[in-house]
From TrEMBL:
Residues 26-157 form the TIR domain. The keyword Transmembrane applies. This is TIR domain-containing protein. The keyword Membrane applies. Signal peptide: none annotated. The chain crosses the membrane at residues 235-261, 273-297. Pfam families: TIR_2 (PF13676). Keywords: Membrane, Transmembrane, Transmembrane helix. One of its GO terms (biological process) is signal transduction. PANTHER family: TETRATRICOPEPTIDE REPEAT PROTEIN 22.
């Protein structure tokens, strides 16, 4: 899914590249791995890269004296966002470089550490790096290499952003219970946010207070659509059964009236018998038709369950949106919203971080006039996107973020379309 969601045409062209800020826990954009014979090339590269704002780390300048090579490699690699490997002859034979590559490959598997090899002279690629695409700079002047490196770095960064899951989801199963008196009442469902669920929510960074959880619980449990979802989701079946019973009763009443008021003569009994035959045929036909109708709808399109689920979802949505609005107002400032989805026997709480979508949308607005169609005179692009996102997450259109979709730009944990895509669709 993540692979498909990433579209090459979404990448900005080179002129709009901005060197990504370093995360708070990193000191360098690149840890550079190279053979001594390439020292001159590395010095030139680092000089140009650092002038452009790309921080580099290399052995001669940045390794701390007193620490072993292995300690230095481990620490400096942890403090770098990417690894740059200068591919040349001699690389494969150096044991320290071999160690650096092994260490980087481990990190790549564990944390997705990006490795960018660049071939500066004709040479054999070490076996471990054979399946990683390298920058071919064999016939390129050293002064042109930095822009190729920055290009690869930005594309890797964007790709990583695209593939980051933007939020998380916690499902809370409804609990089934019997009403009172036990043998007479239908079973019902309720939402029980117990300690296990709370732990789960905390673990998924939902930041909901006990008071807010209690409020959600109360709203959900006061909804008849939730309590009797198993009946509402088979609405046509239940309705047909009721209709059938009413129909049978009316025939009984009709026959009783016929018999008691008119009395039975020999001729009458014949006509009564005919009426009985006709009635039975009609009843059988009615059973057959309603059975076909229910079967058709339940199996082929599951319209009934879909409609009653949608109704339940919508009704609950209005109530919960109201209850969650102070909470979501606070969350919106942090670039996240809390959504929910009601499916059969469970309530899903969805935490959706839309920071990535918003950053991406801002970038696309800069490129495309049609996205700025509703922008007011003098309004800054940042204010415009803030307002668009704010209005969208406050509105009921947000319900679309709870439905899975085949296409999305960013990966949502529930597989729904991402916010930037929905807003763009609305604008065009
Ligand atoms: Zn998005």
């Amino acid at each position: 899914m993540a692979e498909n969601a990433f579209a090459i045409q979404d990448l900005p062209t080179e002129k709009e590249y901005v060197i990504p800020d370093l995360p708070v826990n990193k000191d360098y954009h690149f840890f550079i791995s190279y053979h001594n014979s390439d020292t001159a090339t590395v010095h030139t590269l680092v000089e140009i890269l650092e002038r452009k704002g790309v921080k580099c780390c290399y052995y001669e300048r940045d390794f701390i004296p007193g620490s072993t090579l292995f300690e230095n490699i481990r620490e400096k690699m942890s403090n770098s966002v990417h690894m740059l490997i200068i591919l040349s002859e001699g690389l494969a034979t150096n044991p320290y470089i071999k160690h650096e590559i092994t260490e980087a490959l481990h990190r790549r598997i564990n944390d997705g550490y990006p490795i960018i090899p660049i071939m500066v002279e004709p040479c054999t690629v070490p076996a471990d790096l054979k399946n990683i695409r390298y920058i071919d700079a064999k016939d390129v002047d050293v002064s042109e290499m930095p822009s190729l490196i920055i290009d690869a770095m930005v594309k890797n960064k964007i790709k990583a952003d695209y593939q980051r899951t933007t939020g998380s989801e916690v499902s809370i199963a409804l609990t089934r219970y019997a009403g009172f008196p036990r043998f007479l009442s239908l079973s019902r469902y309720k939402l029980d946010i117990n300690e296990n669920v709370r732990r789960n929510l905390r673990y998924s960074q939902f930041d909901l207070t006990n008071h807010e959880l209690k409020e959600i619980e109360d709203i959900v449990n006061s909804s008849y659509l939730v309590q009797y979802w198993h009946i509402f989701s088979h609405f046509v079946l239940v309705a047909s059964l009721l209709l059938f019973i009413v129909f049978m009763l009316s025939i009984c009443v009709y026959l009783t009236v016929m018999i008691t008021i008119t009395g039975l003569t020999e001729d009458d009994s014949k006509s009564t018998l005919t009426a009985l035959h006709v009635s039975i045929s009609v009843v059988i036909l009615a059973i057959f038709v309603s059975y076909c109708f229910c079967w058709n709808i339940n199996n082929k399109m599951s319209i009934t369950s879909k409609y009653s689920k949608l109704a339940a979802q919508y009704k609950l949505w209005q109530q919960l949106v109201h209850a969650l609005s102070p909470l979501n107002q606070e969350a919106r400032e942090k670039g996240r919203i809390i959504l929910f989805n009601f499916t059969s026997a469970e309530l899903k709480l969805i935490r959706y971080d839309f920071g990535i979508c918003q950053a991406q949308f801002l970038k696309r607005c800069e490129q495309q006039d049609r996205l700025r169609a509703w922008m007011r005179n003098g309004q800054s692009l940042k204010d415009y996107t803030d307002l668009l996102f704010d209005n969208f997450v406050k509105s009921e259109r947000c319900i679309r973020l709870t439905e899975p979709s085949a296409t999305t730009r960013h990966t949502l944990s529930n597989g729904a379309k991402c916010l930037c895509l929905l807003i763009e669709e609305d604008l065009s």
